[in-house]
From TrEMBL:
Principal location listed in the UniProt entry: cytoplasm
Family annotation (NCBIfam families): gltX_bact
Residues binding ATP: 263
GO MF, one example: glutamate-tRNA ligase activity
Domain Glutamyl/glutaminyl-tRNA synthetase class Ib catalytic: 5-346
Assigned EC number: 6.1.1.17
Chain span(s) of sequence motif 'KMSKS' region: 260-264
Organism name: Subsaximicrobium wynnwilliamsii
Name under which the protein is recorded: Glutamate--tRNA ligase
Gene3D superfamilies the UniProt entry points to: 1.10.10.350, Glutamyl-trna Synthetase, Domain 2, Glutamyl-tRNA Synthetase, Domain 3, HUPs
């Protein structure tokens, strides 16, 4: 790379950050870190009618939670600031004027009613109305009007826009780092609006100007922007600026594999599509977030990295640091990537095992009121025994409640399977073994009880199944000797007595 790598994530603050936006931010971040570059956050809020209060703050919090904070952006290392387009609006007009002076753009005074008439007229004839080379001389703009007429309209403050003048009969050669070479016939391009009648630039002009002024070297964005690539190339050329390298990421598809994953799909299908919970200020509706649903940021990052990117190996587990070292845009797929809610759970289960027991214990204690007065070190020991069977901290209570409270009843199926004619006699003898075990350690209990079973030629299941049932209320859970040691001698005897009383 000849010049420093500078990439940007440029969301619009129109609501919560969708999972697709998080992946775009992640790929930008990884590319920047791989090449020791800079990851920039720019807020593209030129469309103030769609601005949603709190959305920008949400975006920043989401990036920080994922562990992919920006290097430059609003209120942070503002080397090329400001980083909100609404605060840069005064600088865009001079660039629109520059394009008019160079003949690459023109004033258009067509009213909304006139354009609507032409669209409907074309539709009635089975055609599509495109404002470009084939009809612009017949429409109300500075190409069809005299210089005097144009100046009169401008002096009268008549509503107008600035349109880009697309060339005729040319072939554009574009390059995408993921999709390769692309050829575009300019005759099919429309003359896009660059500057609106309200004095604000459109996305296209503001985007190009900001990328240039912020010295962006690589534009990594979603494939929905591929149709805009021709215009953006032409704008760079019209200004005489160096063109950054472009890479358009594949869509994230619904779990069915058909269609783009939308913000509504999560509610329909029962999984989050936002990194953090979002409350709609107008309706009060709450959309679920991965953080609040118990996912670890490491799981989300690992999962998203493999949505459309292939490391070229069978490896699936990647820390952010490893990803930053191995990520290459050339290994991003062209085709859409299917979103698999079960796969991100698989990742979460893996990262559950990587968490410190002390941290999980704190989260567990905070999540359940029954644990308020329980010693945190005891909870930590419980977590160590059960976390391998958990995907979320919210699974802990179901997996471990018997460590804190005696089971209120016994699972019917387990009861029928475990209780035999000789169970009362064996459990009575077992109580005697437990009571006389002086050390009451896991090792001594194991040795004492297993020796008794073996010496008396008793089937292990005849003792261990009703014992587990007494301790847990079901035939599940960690090793029974761990449970006995944790709950103590008196509680163990009490629970076996409760089982005996039920027979």
């Amino acid at each position: 790379m000849n010049k420093p790598v500078r990439v940007r994530f440029a969301p619009s603050p129109t609501g919560p950050l969708h999972i697709g936006g998080v992946r775009t931010a992640l790929f930008n971040y990884l590319f920047a870190k791989k090449h020791k570059g800079t990851f920039v956050l720019r807020i593209e809020d030129t469309d103030q009618t769609r601005y949603v209060a709190g959305a920008e703050d949400y975006i920043v919090k989401a990036l920080n939670w994922c562990g992919i904070p920006f290097d430059e952006g609003p209120n942070k290392n503002e080397k090329f600031g400001p980083y909100r387009q609404s605060e840069r609006k005064d600088l865009y007009k001079k660039y629109a004027d520059q394009l008019i002076e160079s003949g690459h753009a023109y004033y258009a005074f067509d009213t909304a009613e006139t354009l609507d008439f032409h669209r409907k007229d074309h539709e009635a004839k089975g055609k599509t109305f495109i404002y470009n080379w084939h009809n612009r001389q017949k429409l109300d703009n500075s190409l069809s009007l005299s210089a005097e007429a144009v100046q009169q309209k401008l002096d009268a403050n008549e509503d107008h826009v600035v349109r880009f003048k697309s060339p005729q009969d040319e072939t554009l050669h574009l390059t995408d780092m993921i999709r390769g070479d692309i050829e575009i016939d300019t005759n099919i391009l429309d003359d896009k609006v660059l500057f609106k009648s309200d004095g604000m630039p459109t996305y296209h002009l503001a985007n190009i100007v900001d990328d240039h002024l912020m010295q962006i070297s690589h534009v990594i964005r979603g494939e929905e922007w591929v149709p805009s690539l021709a215009l953006h190339y032409q704008l760079y050329d019209a200004f005489g600026w160096d063109i950054p390298q472009f890479a358009h990421l594949p869509l994230i598809l619904k779990p069915t594999g058909k269609g783009k994953l939308s913000k509504r799909d999560g509610d329909k299908m029962g999984f989050p599509v936002f990194p953090l919970e979002w409350t709609d200020a107008e309706t009060g509706a709450v959309s679920a977030g991965y953080k609040e649903n118990g996912y670890f940021p490491e799981a989300m990052v690992n999962f998203l990295a493999l949505l459309g990117w292939n490391p070229g190996t069978e490896q699936e587990i990647f820390t952010l640091e490893i990803l930053s070292n191995v990520f290459e845009l050339e290994r991003v797929n062209k085709g859409g990537a299917r979103f698999d809610p079960d796969k991100i759970k698989w990742f979460n289960h893996h990262y559950m095992q990587e968490q410190h027991d002390a941290d999980l214990a704190k989260a567990y204690k905070a999540s359940h009121k029954a644990l308020a007065d329980i010693d945190i070190q005891y909870i930590e020991l419980v977590v160590a025994l059960i976390k391998e069977r958990a995907t979320f901290v919210s699974d802990f209570w179901e997996l471990s409640s018997f460590f804190f409270v005696a089971p209120k009843d016994f699972d019917d199926k387990a009861y029928k399977k475990a209780i035999k004619d000789d169970t009362p006699e064996l459990m009575t003898q077992l109580i005697q073994k437990v009571t006389t075990n002086a050390e009451f350690t896991i090792e001594s209990l194991q040795e004492d009880i297993k020796s008794w079973i073996t010496d008396n030629n008793i089937g292990f299941g005849k003792v261990m199944m009703p014992l587990r049932l007494a301790l847990v209320g079901a035939l599940q859970g960690p090793d029974v000797f761990d449970i006995m040691f944790m709950i103590g001698k008196a509680e163990t005897v009490k629970r076996i007595d409760t089982l005996l009383a039920s027979i």
